[in-house]
């Protein structure tokens, strides 16, 4: 169990996941949190990371920092996604080990699992098949981070764990026009279509892929729970165990926002993985379940979007 006054470093505290973890830690009474902005500490620079860990000596680390994006962003910057993510996670995990960190939690992504993995996807299906090409670079980097934690555990007896979330959404999401994930992208597009009086909105693909979504504050609650109650080299899936089609998601978001125009589909654009549903029985067996239903979470996310300066960036 983490002591309430233990020194805890949250890497990526300004991002959607990292900021949620900070909120959850503060809610639970943890008082000694350490954070650094990218300007203060560039995690892709090994010398800076090593100096930070040597100086601060954090006891616990939540590694939520990452370069992230949707299909368009991943396809246009494959090398950048692989390099930046692999370098920053290796720097942080290695420096944590060098400085005797008690426990580290690595945040990954469900895209690490094979494109055509049996559904719902169990933690054990990792590396049993080919990855989805549209986010292969990101997935390979995340697999490397997960495996490095596992190998440190095996070789040096560390207590480094990992959690693999499904699609996330919520406060501090990225609403960029071309570099956001599907749910925040829908929020922005339907909001702007309503504001501009557009009679239709065209979405990518045919709307058939099945997806699962987890509200980011629920993930943060699980992250702190696992840090206190789980040890093991196998990752833990984080999700709801529920799925819906992208078409159903678009209709749900449009309904929350109040957009009443037509929703069209551009079948010339890629769908991505046909289905991604996590098996969450491991987290359930540990004693954790999600709390926020999707429609309620979308309402909260839309409220955040309306107050989010990112939505002005094009």
Report on this structure.
The strands form four sheets. This protein has a six-stranded parallel β-sheet, with helices on both faces. Helix 8 crosses helix 10. It is α/β, with parallel strands linked by helices and 314 residues long. The protein is built from ten helices and 13 strands. The mean pLDDT is 93. The termini are far apart.
Keywords:
314 residues, 3-stranded mixed sheet
Tally of extended strands?
Answer: 13
Q: Unreliable segments (pLDDT under 50, ≥5 consecutive)? A: none
Sheet bearing the most strands, described?
6 strands, parallel
Helix content: 40-55%
- Mean pLDDT across residues: 93
Please indicate the percent range of residues in DSSP E strands (runs of 2 or more): 5-15%
Task: Compile the SSE list and pairings.
Layout: E1 8-11, H1 16-27, E2 33-34, H2 46-56, E3 60-63, H3 71-76, H4 78-98, E4 103-107, H5 136-156, E5 160-165, E6 167-169, H6 182-196, E7 200-204, E8 210-211, E9 213-215, H7 216-229, E10 236-238, E11 244-245, H8 246-257, E12 262-266, E13 275-276, H9 281-286, H10 294-306
Parallel strand pairs: 1-2, 1-3, 3-4, 4-5, 5-10, 6-9, 7-12, 8-13
Antiparallel strand pairs: 8-11
